[in-house]
Design goal:
- The protein is mostly helical.
- It is 59% helix and 0% strand.
- The protein has two helices and no strands.
- It starts with 5 loop residues before the first helix and ends in a 15-residue tail after the last helix.
Length: 56
């Protein structure tokens, strides 16, 4: 049975953490530069309107 490569797993976790942190930093920078763009960046899903009328 092969033994787990903990160093590789740790490096992958660290790289993922670093990428996530960088992405968050970029979002913060862009929201500071363009505060009105923040509202447009998060599109809201249209709410489905239930048809209360019954067809007969």
């Amino acid at each position: 049975m092969a033994k787990p490569n903990y160093a590789f797993e740790k490096r992958q976790r660290d790289l993922a953490k670093k990428a996530k942190k960088e992405e968050k930093r970029q979002r913060k920078i862009s929201s500071r530069e363009n505060p009105e763009e923040k509202d447009r960046a998060e599109p809201t899903a249209p709410t489905p309107e239930a048809d209360t009328r019954t067809s007969s």
